[in-house]
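Q: Predict the bound structure with iron/sulfur cluster.
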Amino acid sequence: MRKNPGGTDDTINSASDAGSGVLAGEVVAEFRGSSLIGRLKEWWAFQTMPRLDWVQLEVTTRCNASCRYCPRTVYRSSWIDRDLSWETFRLLYPVMKRTRMVHLQGWGEPLLHPCLFDMIALAKKAGCVVGTTTNGMLLDRRTAVRLVESGVDHVAFSLAGVGDQNDEARRGTRFSAVLEAIAGLAAEKKIRRQPTPVIGVAYLLLRSHLPDIGRMIPALAGVGVQQIVVSTLDFVAHRDLAEEYLAPADQAAYGQLKFRFEQMSEEARRQGLALYGNLVLPDPEGRVCTENPCRAVFVSSDGSISPCAFAGIPAERLSCVAGGKESNYQRLTFGAINNETLPAVWKSAAYREFRASFGRQPHPLCQNCAKRPKR
Ligand code: SF4
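A: Predicted complex:
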């Protein structure tokens, strides 16, 4: 059974309010070793690993939608539905205290989790910039008010097209309902004269929607959206989806697409929107992994630690399409926060080898990944 989150915060309060410096009380409250020496060792282990740029925390793998391109839909027969437990989340407090940003979302809809707002509160208490991504379908007025009052810094709404195009690709969601949710959240910010959360759209550009990309900015301007981040289909879960993967074949195609994005960025700027997009480079030179695996981690809802969300898909015996070929998919995890501390996992030989391989021959999972590491 889940413990009452409110009942467990006091200990953490006393630690985080203790101010800077190493106080014995802080170490006792923050770390989980059975003795003071053990806790001091844990504290020291954190001092000797880099401060992370971000941690992506998978709040749940449950979802109220079934987007046709999502691994959850494609792998539904072996999908594991689960929530991140409050106990596991609390174990991450020392990690959050040493991390710049926490994003509360993985392969599922965060608003389905009964403790989401407690998680936001604890991550804010740890001093993080906190964000989440939602499909928007559960975001009624009450939830909008709670989000504004929670102090969450960023809320992104997922879309994959405009109007019917989105509704067909993102089954179980409606474009019009998402726009209403965005407008409702913007209105609550205005009423409370609160600048946060910054409202974004995480816009998935499928190849078949490329001819209609010009509809995106007019549809999203003036409803409360401040940022649009355009991405392409990074994980192709089935060969039927392979044609939706948008990667320029050569430098000429890359240049055309880049020019189109620059035009859209200019149009977005005129409409008061910021537009960001990452295009896949056509040749391996200069590619980097945008998931920042050397300074960020993904924590699955079972507490396991991976370099990114693509390495932590909660289903079994899967195949996917990578580099144009069908191949077996295997999760890549290096430990679990329920059994070990993050520094212990981070410093393990296997994880160190994985990070070092980026400069040479990347891990097989990364070699054909759409996020593209440098080779
Ligand atoms: S390149 Fe590797 S670390 Fe980067 S997103 Fe792909 S699978 Fe994850």
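A: The longest strand covers residues 198-205.
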